Amino acid sequence: MLQCGLLIPVGDDSEAGIFTSIFLEIGDEQSLENDLSTYSSHLIHIKQLLENATSGTLFLIDEFGAGTEPQLGGAMAEASLESLSKTGCFGVVTTHYTNLKLMAGKHPGIVNGAMLYDTKAMTPLFRLSIGKPGSSFAFEIARKIGFPTNVLESATSKISSSQLNFEHQLAQLEVDKKYIDQKKTDLKVADEMLASLVNRYESLLTSLETRKQEIIKEAKTKAQQLLDNSNKVIENTIRGIKENNAEKELTRKLRDQLVESKVTLLNETEEPEPLPEPILNKEILKASREIPPGPLKAGSYVKMEGQEIIGKIDDIKGKQATVLFGSLKIKTKTENLIAATIAEIRTWEANQKFSKPSTSVYHQLNDKMADFKMSIDIRGKNAEEAHEIIARYIDQAILLRVHEVRILHGKGDGVLRNILHSHLREVPDVERYEDESLERGGHGVTLVYFR
């Protein structure tokens, strides 16, 4: 086609060669006038090809070696192909001869190809497969068209068992190859899905770890603020008692004020204003260093070695202890635990009361995260329903700090897809969105990524 000046269906970066000569051996050119049989005509053409073939030659031969006794014709065809392969020319040969099919593994430059066949329906698939020989399916085709069974059995008995095994192996290879190709496709899809899940879980883990650090930092800040305010009230009370020489009535009033201040601190909802560094008296300093007497047991307050968070021992068995850190339960060796001081325990207890509402919120978030699905399906919904579902789902994903979600809306006329994309463009927390890969839904599925 190229050498005739026709455009050929190839890629922009393809390269093509130019043949200096082209030889064709297709069809039957027997002649009674010239005393040429089919095989004689065939040999004359092959002779011309062998004499004139060069590295720039292209030859096309149909049914190489046909027209005479199969073993002799196959031997002549094999010898001719060996000679042609040495010249480095190019060609395509069709044949049913087994000896020619086996040449691909013995001579460099010769490659097998086969037209694929559906071995169950016994119909051609019209697809070329390079790299392996094909079966002629002689007996299978004869059986399909209703050839007499007794004749088939007789023919089977007349052919060598090695030839039959070769044909059966070729047919089985075809079946095995189709099975392996299908499994490769299934594995590729499964591998992509697994990689996607791993990325989602890693993103979720990172988000949870970040949130954990924020919670710890917030709890420390609140505890410190509560301690600062408590110390300030205590110091003011002690100073008032000393300055008034411990007068009974005034002392009672100061104690009442201390109780009122305690209630106010515990019920405080607004952020307290920063206070100056308190001056602790000797009793407070002593409590900050003292630890409850006796060995560690169930109910003891402890810290993990190298950590500042206070936990409560739930159970001890031998050298193993189960410790509750808020709603988190951890098992560890007792040697990794350090008894909390009395001052730390008091601070922890006060902070527990102070932060109860926040703890409830965290539990609710945990419950929502457990129930949240990384993918939703809005197919079949009308526009109003779809918009409401999308808005609620995207809001939940942002609240739970999910990195990526998958929304299945189908292709159809594109109405649901347009509603979704229009909503996503108005959400600042959406970093980007894109269509799913072709093998997993293409335009019918949208992947949404959050900041």
In the CATH hierarchy, the third-tier topology of the domain at 21-185 is known as: Rossmann fold
Low-pLDDT regions: 269-285
The helix count comes to 12
Proportion of beta-strand residues: 15-25%
Gyration radius (Cα, Å) is 43 Å
Largest sheet: 5 strands, antiparallel
CATH class of the domain at 21-185: Alpha Beta
What general form does the structure show?
Answer: elongated
CATH architecture of the domain at 21-185: 3-Layer(aba) Sandwich
Helix content: 40-55%
Distance between the termini: 54 Å
Q: Give me the CATH superfamily of the domain at 21-185.
A: P-loop containing nucleotide triphosphate hydrolases
Structural class assignment = alpha+beta
Strand order of the largest sheet: 9-8-7-6-10
